[in-house]
Amino acid sequence: MRYSKLFLPTLKEVPSEAEIISHKLMLRAGMIRRLASGLYSYLPLGLKALRKVETIVREEMFRAGAQEVLLPMVQPRELWEESGRWQKYGKELLRFKDRHEHDFCLGPTHEEVITDLVRREVRSYRDLPLNLFQIQTKFRDEIRPRFGLMRGREFVMKDAYSFDVDEEALDRQYWNMFEAYCRIFERCGLDFKAVKADTGAIGGHESHEFMVIADTGEDEIASCTVCKWAANIELAEVKSGSDSGDEGEAFDEIKKVNTPGVKQVEDVSEFLKVPLHKIVKSLVLETDKKDVVVAMVRGDHELNEVKMKKVLGCDELTLAKEATVERVTGAPIGFAGPVGLREKVILIADNSIKSLRNFVVGANEKDAHLLNVNWDRDIKDVSFSDIRNITEADPCPECGSTIEIRRGIEVGHVFKLGTKYSEAMGATFLDKDGKERPIVMGCYGIGVSRTVQAAIEQNHDELGIVFPEPIAPFDLIVTVVNVKDEELRASGENIYKAALSKGIDCLFDDRDMRPGVKFKDAELIGIPVRITVGKRLKEDGSVEVFHRKTRQVELIPMEKLEDVLNSLKYSS
Amino acid sequence: MRYSKLFLPTLKEVPSEAEIISHKLMLRAGMIRRLASGLYSYLPLGLKALRKVETIVREEMFRAGAQEVLLPMVQPRELWEESGRWQKYGKELLRFKDRHEHDFCLGPTHEEVITDLVRREVRSYRDLPLNLFQIQTKFRDEIRPRFGLMRGREFVMKDAYSFDVDEEALDRQYWNMFEAYCRIFERCGLDFKAVKADTGAIGGHESHEFMVIADTGEDEIASCTVCKWAANIELAEVKSGSDSGDEGEAFDEIKKVNTPGVKQVEDVSEFLKVPLHKIVKSLVLETDKKDVVVAMVRGDHELNEVKMKKVLGCDELTLAKEATVERVTGAPIGFAGPVGLREKVILIADNSIKSLRNFVVGANEKDAHLLNVNWDRDIKDVSFSDIRNITEADPCPECGSTIEIRRGIEVGHVFKLGTKYSEAMGATFLDKDGKERPIVMGCYGIGVSRTVQAAIEQNHDELGIVFPEPIAPFDLIVTVVNVKDEELRASGENIYKAALSKGIDCLFDDRDMRPGVKFKDAELIGIPVRITVGKRLKEDGSVEVFHRKTRQVELIPMEKLEDVLNSLKYSS
Questions:
Q1: Burial B98-118 (b: 16+ CB within 10 A, else e)
Q2: Residue from A6, A35, A449 whose CB has the most chain B CBs within 10 Å, to mutate
Q3: How many domains does chain B have?
Q4: Cα gap B409→B457, rounded to integer Å
Q5: % of residues, chain B, pLDDT over 90
Q6: CA distance A512 to B310
Q7: The whole model's pTM is what?
Q8: Residue A358's domain is classified under what CATH number?
Q9: Is the complex ipTM more than 0.85?
Q10: Range of the domain at B554
Q11: In chain B, which residues have their Cβ closer than 8 Å to the Cβ of A72?
Q12: d(CA A96, CA B95)
């Protein structure tokens, strides 16, 4: 491709709409442009990177024995009624009526459609196993789209669905997909981690997420520094003993103290001169079943919403509204505690505070806390569970070693769905004994467009993008310093053509512009290797080979350039 | 691919939902399945054919200098307001609200989005020309989706948009695209014709359609048997002289005759013993501007709606409702005529009836017609225009030779848009003199999914699909007659692997089924060549090479099979 013809509008300034670096760089590098909130157009450079990821995904899905299909993006309400998700799925499911006033939605995922397809075609165990995938545009009406492709409304996803006779066969499919995913993200050149994950609203009973490691990631992931254990902190089990060191303490007398204007737990600790871990935070919550819950965790811990939902068996859990807090505690928000509540509520405390003695809680009264609170004597009917986030102070739940917590961007997700959808929708098969049984399903997603952006979030420097070689839109850029110099231009042209003939995806910067502008653009768009044809050619017959990642420059005599080109063929 | 693993559910019975042969065959061959009205899932075989067409389209678009982008399918109302199409586009434009109650639509086409993208990036004549395309799923909420992919609601389309400094540059782009389209449909192996076409609602001032010739096509196309002229009959100009042979006749006395129950023009001709061409059909029509129009054509001609709209300068034209007909004519539908109407209406007659004398018209009275009607004496204020379809009796408007009329399926369309969208949306550039001018645009569409089905509509026989080689989902099927015979199975396996190693897209029928079933499936799905490994292998060491199109069988000794395989590599 000749740069002079390429639709590649780079930007010097950082667009105000972008918050994170990958989003800024994709805009500046002319990869994407915003159409409306959460809706992006892919320009040629962005689409080329997207296609490289797609190609790797497709090849590995085929290698794993999956077959490609393409399902409609517009889906009828009836199928979603069958699965129960027409009601249950939130507003991310964009629902609308067609011209005949029939209800449809834009597919955010395709469990219903694929289950419907398979139930019509699969009759017998002989038709199984089956693994069908598609690479397709999905739509989720996010309440607050942001970060470009990271949390867009329209996005490109690879979704696969497996169909098996039993759990054992599903298990084989699941790990087969797991391995395919590892190959995919390795081939994309990404630093990633597969972690145990929550199965969330989609249902199912085993799940792993594939996380691209990046400081700005929305997810926190815990992993063992010794064994292979790794999990999203949403899910990571805490196996710390409940030993607080307090067990020997006698119960002191409960005492109310004034804490004027002191709400934050750190401030309470400071004000009362009590260590953080002896202050118990009480959060007033409401479930979709209208239950009011007071959840208690230590001052140095964080409540884990996913764990709480599981303990409560509810689908939705939110912080209670101000009016509810005032009704239940008799005080404004910020002073809730488990002692002296005005209504019967569900009390749940984290395991780690079970052995605490003489701890501090909110007094259910403005500007007041209670000291020396103790279980049984002061608080009854509490159940203890693992309801907090794991911390680096906790041991690995598998081997007890030290863990570390990092941030990541979720780019893939594998689920064991079991028979959730097949039972709801009557997708059955006849087993070897002629008995009708529900098909056992799995589902496997990759955010293709998100992977492109996550790669940039992980791989950039102050000059711009540093594309991992396998997903770079071009393998090589050939820059002619001065295109008006016929000799330089002709040499550049020759290198460009030689590269193309070797199957190297090459961009030829033939623009009549200052070299500085051309170098800056090349660095911004992150092409792994640049060959610069400049005055050295006339001096000693050599060209510069610049490596974007290391920023090292080699001087290569023209006659040895073929070896360099031969080493560049990533794209095939 | 091994057939035993392939998700390829063929059907013996013809599904009741299908009307035309290609739709039936695509369902029977397990290429597609219906999800809801106008919404289809592509199964692996269907998707493979679709991808082959996509690949040809993409290669030729690149060769023509176009660049690939990917635009959102969900589009904001604001852009469509700018172009004026939010109001003007009919119910095919599916409009809906997102969770924040903002108006959006599902993209049926992308003029607005691409014009918006380009107006933000293009500043100067130096940024032009530009030609951007995408291959993407579109949605049009057809009132009556039918014929499978032929008139679906969701479909895969290649749409391209060009941007130029002036009409001359647009003209070069236009013919460049025209030639690319010819190469695309040639490479797909299709019998097609490029014809002049109406520009319709999309606007613009020059247009050609690419038609796949097929008896069941929805369009009629006229073409000269001598010169290169070809046009959609919607548009084909009639240049017949108005000479009817009646010019010498004297005006006879007008006479009302009883024609009880005789409505159809053929019946009137028969009943009154008057030749068809001396009966004038009068159609009562209504425009979107609420005008009532009586259009007159000869009994052996057909009214052309597109021409009528142009004559009237209206966007919509429909047959008048019963109440309107009764109000205007004083009679029920079927007896309208230009003489004695009860209201002033617009009278338009086709050029061919200008010289008629003593013709027959409806009497505006139940069961009655008028004989010996004549212009001026009986009918005043008529304007004459070309408002009928061309017939094979008319001469070529270019060279006067004989024309022929065939049916076709529209698979491609090229338009000169001019400045319609760029002016409406302010997409301008600075020319060499620093003057701001609107960008001159073209647009170019190919119905990718429709092309697959049109290919089948054109290429099939009583046994099933006969795929043109370049777009067949597989190049070759290797059928082992009896897979339980180890020698046959091993030989089949060897041929399969040899074919794959040569880059031949090969399907290996390794199913443990009766040979008859396997042959029938192979014929149904239309793979161009079948190699059958059967008992001949044991007798004389040969295999059968069966050509699907000609149904010829060659016996080839195993040692010469390599030559056959070498000749089969269509797919690269």
A1: beeeeebbbbbbbbbbbbbbb
A2: A35
A3: 3
A4: 9
A5: 89
A6: 49
A7: 0.92
A8: 3.90.960.10
A9: yes
A10: 474-566
A11: 35-36, 39-41, 154
A12: 8
